[in-house]
Amino acid sequence: MFKKGIARRWLFNSLGVMILLFTACIAALSFVVQSYAYNGIQMTLIGRSDELPTVLSGSMKTVSEFNAAARSYTENFPDKDLMEVMAVSRSGSILSTSSGFAPDQNQSKPDFESALHSENGYGYWIGKLASGEKVMAVSRVARGANGAVLGAVRYIVSMERADRQITYVVLVLIGIGVLILVLVTLSGIYFVRSIITPIRELNATAEKIAKGDFDVRVKKEKDDELGALCDSINDMAAELGTAEKMKNDFISSVSHELRTPLTAIKGWAETLQTGGIGRETYDKGMNVIVREAERLSGMVEELLDFSRMQSGRMRLILKRIDLLAELDEAVYMFTDRARTEHKNLIYDEEDTMLSPILGDVNRLRQVFINVIDNALKYTNPGGTVRVSAYEDDGFIRVIIKDSGCGIPAEHLPNVKKKFYKANQNVRGNGIGLAVANEIMELHSGSLDIDSEEGMGTTVIITIPTMKKLEMNPELSNTTQIPTATAQVQVVERKQD
Q1: Same domain, 148 and 234
Q2: Which residues form the Histidine kinase domain (predicted)?
């Protein structure tokens, strides 16, 4: 786990920083403990030295008097078990000591030298004796009435016990720190594992999805950010699976749609090629070939439109047009078909003129044709398709309502998606509504569908008038805002 990746970075970054902080804290605490202990001992020694003026009062006129009083003080010192007291002559020789042993006259006395040159008569020193023992010493100089140095009293304490206690405290602090560090490390490892394990599972799942296994799912362990990521991966897999199925259905549908006219064209071409047929049969065959060729051309054009839509290259050539005129022509195109299929195609013509719009004539006609074609396809013989248009608050709305089979509620949100077909039993490739919706969005309009299963479907096509766009430029979905003064404009969708 720690060879690479997140765990390694955590180990060398977070844990490394914690170790440095831990070391710094231990060093700082050790210094504080040692300073506190040493200062306490020093203040104790200075406090004892402050009693000299009282103890030696009246005996500090001459050197001999001081020497006698100092010997008596050292020999009768009550705290001999806590510290050693020495009487030092003004020349630096040791006169007597509270230990009862012969003093070492060669012993270093930096504190005595410091006290001789100090204004307050104190001297302080920490060091090692000739025996190697670490001690703290405080010297207090005694002066006569004329200010002359009579001698000094030196207080010495062994620091070995204090150092042992300080070491013990430091070791306890280190132990506590190490324990905390171990707990933090174990907690960190558990936390890192709780992240790395799901990430590895997500990675393995993503690899399977990349290889085309859209049925694989990630097991969600916890309801947190990783859980949300698991949900997103699972949703993505489901969406990709659905898209893959729709794509396969689309390919199958397109293949079938292309094969049908091609079969008719090929069959009649072979028939005509044999010769020896009557004029009526010849004309019938040529009509079939032309009609099916036009049908093929329409399907290819629809596929090209879809390709342009996918790559963001669908463009419009906008100009001032009368929307009703294009709607009239589209309805007229389906009149014969509706009559042949025994369906009622009713067009409620508007009595008043509608405001002009900026639109692409061919594209808007394509939208009307796609929607009316769908309405007729899904309407049973004897059913009705009703087309109407009106203007409301600066928008023109075209309503195409059929009495067909309707769209189930679970399919309704997806019918404008690419490749999606709610009814696989009806011809079509599933991209007509997607292209129509894209065209309407390029026109700064919308294509809305309201349907109830078994009751029919209503499609509402909404597009703003020229005046509405001029007054509200923010409504435009194109890179160029249409204006009434422009004769022709070429626009495309804004890129996000």
Answers
A1: no
A2: 253-467
Burial class (CB in 10 A: 0-12, 13-18, 19+), 69: buried
Residue pLDDT, tens place only, 297-321? 877 777 777 777 666 666 778 888 8
Residues 471, 332 share a domain? yes
pLDDT digits 0-9 by tens, 180-199: 888 888 887 787 777 787 88
Nearest to 428 by CA among 415, 413, 409: 415
pTM of full prediction above 0.90 = no
Cα–Cα distance, 178 to 181 (Å, whole number): 5
Pair 244, 338 in one domain: no
Q: Is 138:123 a contact under the CB 8 Å cutoff?
A: yes
State how many domains the chain has: 3
Between CA 314 and CA 466, with CA 394 as vertex, the angle to 5 degrees is 50
- Residue 79 in any domain: the answer is yes
Q: Is 108:131 a contact under the CB 8 Å cutoff?
A: no
| Percent of the chain's residues with pLDDT above 90 | 11
Q: Which of 282, 304, 326 represents a domain boundary (last residue)? A: 304
Q: Is 220 within a domain?
A: no
Pair 209, 244: CB distance under 8 Å: no
CATH of the domain at 485: 3.30.565.10
Residues 300 and 318 in one domain: no
Determine the structural domain holding residue 262 and report its residue range: 225-304
Domain termination site, one of 304, 332, 349? 304
One-letter amino acid of 84: E
CB 421 within 8 Å of CB 245: no
Q: Pairing state of beta strands 149-158 and 315-321?
A: unpaired
Nearest Cα neighbor of 95 from 115, 125, 75 is 75
Least confident segment among 133-147, 245-259, 276-290, 455-469: 245-259
Instruction: Answer yes or no: do 271 and 319 share one domain.
Output: no
Nearest Cα to Cα of residue 230 among 211, 214, 206, 208? 206
Answer whether residue 319 is part of any domain.
yes
